[in-house]
Write a structure and sequence with these properties.
Number of strands of chain B: 6
Strand content of chain B: 15-25%
Strand content of chain A: 15-25%
CATH class of chain B: Alpha Beta
Structural class of chain B: alpha/beta
CATH superfamily of the largest domain in chain A: Thiamin diphosphate (ThDP)-binding fold, Pyr/PP domains
Number of domains of chain B: 1
Distance between the termini of chain A: 47 Å
Number of domains of chain A: 2
Largest interface: A-B, 23 and 19 residues
Largest sheet of chain A: 7 strands, mixed
Structural class of chain A: alpha/beta
Shape of chain B: globular
Order of helices and strands of chain A: EHEHEHEHEHEHEHEHEEHEEHEHEH
Largest sheet of chain B: 6 strands, mixed
Number of helices of chain A: 12
CATH superfamily of chain B: Pyruvate-ferredoxin oxidoreductase, PFOR, domain III
Helix content of chain A: 40-55%
Number of strands of chain A: 14
Order of helices and strands of chain B: EHEEEHEEHHHH
Oligomer: heterodimer
Shape of chain A: globular
Radius of gyration of chain B: 15 Å
Distance between the termini of chain B: 25 Å
Strand order of the largest sheet of chain B: 2-3-1-4-5-6
Chain lengths: ~350, ~180
């Protein structure tokens, strides 16, 4: 199939449709509005429903309803809107419902701005909603990867009966790159648990997230833990870039990882043995890969568009074995490749932060 | 070869479309391409710009901080982007709309009266393509044929009658800088 030029936000939409997503509920917010815009046009063509809800809170609860009825369903927003959806995300996780959420992150906190940022990492990977739950969090770093991971997100959601978040940023949402819409097929499993009318079914389906007796709720939480352990064992994804002989290891995801790759190339031109580990799943985080790299690397440098959030997971993984430095721009500012190289040179000379 | 191009001007001048035309043409030539718009709270009459990267190898940063070439379609854009151009890079100024001179001695300056040339052709709306034609001639970023091919692919059939005048504008722009 030949390549087409697509905006990241549109690529989320098209890949979702190809993966069998028929329902989208959302509310506009920059820098992701092209996604609902695309779905408004595209979903009616495949007999689906696009609905602009009256608010983000309404939208996420519509997602809960559609997921409960067994449909593949998506919502999207950016930081402030995702915050509003967090109650519903916790309910989805508590009810073990499959759904796909997209966060095209902008500068925060509060209203912040509409420029690209990665400052929603904590919210995505550490909770955001209440209770002991985990989101599977996928971080694309190109428009092609948006396509590939969106399709994967629906499969993971169904496989593990868990909400999945695609964490992007304003650059990835707004940029256009060539993509191939390879052979994405809707691999939708049977959903005998769905609340979709009895239709001759002998048993009654009920989807709740309430376990009013503490003993029962503990038991339920432990089953969630077992599921999360399984995800952690089976679904970690990362990319190694020029890691074979790397003495200095950068860790970056999404747009920052592209900049970090540029910095690896520039640093190598200067003779510095630098590599990159790019987490593709932010949860489950590739902790084991980092721990392994720590046995041979001299130091790590995390590059993020936040005050430093993923760096905490990097430090937990490296566990004090080697120094972990941090280079960030935040508030909607984007790092510049040559500034990252300057930081690398400082670290090589023993003067990093 | 890595081309990192910024096209900047007023919203409504077709700035984002010019960038998409270059990007699509690069894709047709099997190059690595990326297009990134400024997406602040812009509106018609406000400033707009986009970054286009065309490269032989995978593109690390779609954000262009040191452009190899810029196309300037209004004065605020000249003030903003002149300092960013890579030394030895190109700055193409639409002198029909910008009266300020480029100050830097270390970049290659081309003043192109794109609107006047376009009006001579009888169609003031092709000023953008005159600038693109000039850029193509100077940098070889993509060929005029690929840009024409792009127009065939992206324009709906009822607008294909506009392709010849657009191609002519690309050629006029190229011709103008060739004669300098």
């Amino acid at each position: 199939m030949s390549k087409i030029l697509m905006k990241g936000n549109e690529a989320f939409g098209e890949a979702a449709v190809l993966a069998g997503c028929k329902y989208f509920f959302g509310y506009p917010i920059t820098p992701q509005s092209e996604l609902p815009h695309y779905m408004a046009k595209r979903l009616p063509e495949v007999g689906g429903v696009f609905l602009q809800a009256e608010s983000e809170i309404a939208a996420i609860n519509m997602v809960y309803g559609a997921a409960g009825a067994g449909a593949r369903v998506m919502t999207s927003s950016s930081g402030p809107g995702i915050s509003l959806k967090m109650e519903g995300v916790s309910y989805l996780a508590g009810a073990e419902l499959p759904a796909v959420l997209v966060n095209v992150v902008r500068g925060g906190p509060g209203l912040g701005n509409i420029a690209p940022a990665q400052s929603d990492y904590f919210q995505a990977t550490k909770g955001g909603g209440h209770g002991d739950y985990r989101l599977i969090v996928l971080a694309p770093s190109s428009v092609q990867e948006i396509v590939d991971l969106t399709a994967k997100a629906f499969d993971l959601a169904d496989q593990y009966m868990n909400p999945v978040m695609l964490l992007a940023d304003g650059i990835l949402g707004q940029m256009m790159e060539p993509v191939e819409l390879k052979d994405i097929k809707p691999n939708i499993p049977a959903k005998p648990w769905a609340v979709n009318g009895m239709k001759g079914r002998a048993y009654r389906n009920l989807i709740v997230s309430v376990h009013i007796v503490a003993e029962d709720n503990e038991k339920f939480n432990l089953t969630l833990q077992a599921k999360y352990d399984k995800i952690f064992q089976n679904e970690v994804l990362y990319e190694n870039y020029k890691m074979d002989d790397a003495e200095f290891v950068m860790v970056a995801y999404g747009s920052s990882a592209r900049l970090a790759k540029g910095a690896v190339d520039k640093a190598r031109e200067k003779g510095l043995k630098v590599g990159l580990i790019r987490p593709i799943t932010l949860w489950p985080f590739p902790s084991e890969r980092l721990a392994e790299a720590a046995t041979t690397a001299k130091a790590f440098l995390t590059v993020e568009m936040s005050l430093g959030q993923m760096v905490e997971d990097v430090r937990l993984a490296v566990n004090g074995v080697k120094p972990v430095y941090l280079y960030t721009r935040t508030g909607g500012m984007v790092p510049v490749v040559k500034d990252i190289v300057v930081e690398l040179e400082k670290i090589v000379q023993g003067g990093g932060k | 070869m890595l081309h990192e191009i910024i096209i900047a001007g007023f919203g409504g001048q077709g700035i984002l479309s010019m960038g998409q035309l270059l990007t699509y043409a690069g894709m047709i030539e099997n190059k690595e391409v990326a297009w990134l718009p400024s997406y602040g709270p812009e509106m018609r009459g406000g400033t707009a710009n986009c970054a286009v990267t065309v490269s032989d190898i995978p593109i690390s940063s779609p954000v262009v901080s040191e452009p190899t070439a810029v196309i300037i379609m209004n004065k605020p854009s000249l003030i903003k982007f002149e300092p960013m151009v890579k030394p030895d890079g190109f700055i193409l100024v639409n002198s029909s709309l910008v009266d300020q001179k480029v100050k830097r001695p270390d970049i290659k300056v081309y003043e192109i009266p794109a609107n006047e040339i376009a009006e001579e052709m009888g169609n003031s709306r092709v000023a953008g393509n005159i600038m693109l034609g000039a850029l193509q001639e100077l940098t070889g970023v993509v060929s005029i044929d690929s840009m024409e091919e792009t127009l065939k692919k992206v324009l709906p059939p009822h607008k294909h009658n506009l392709i010849p005048v657009n191609r002519q504008a690309l050629e006029k722009g190229a011709e103008f800088v060739r004669s300098k």
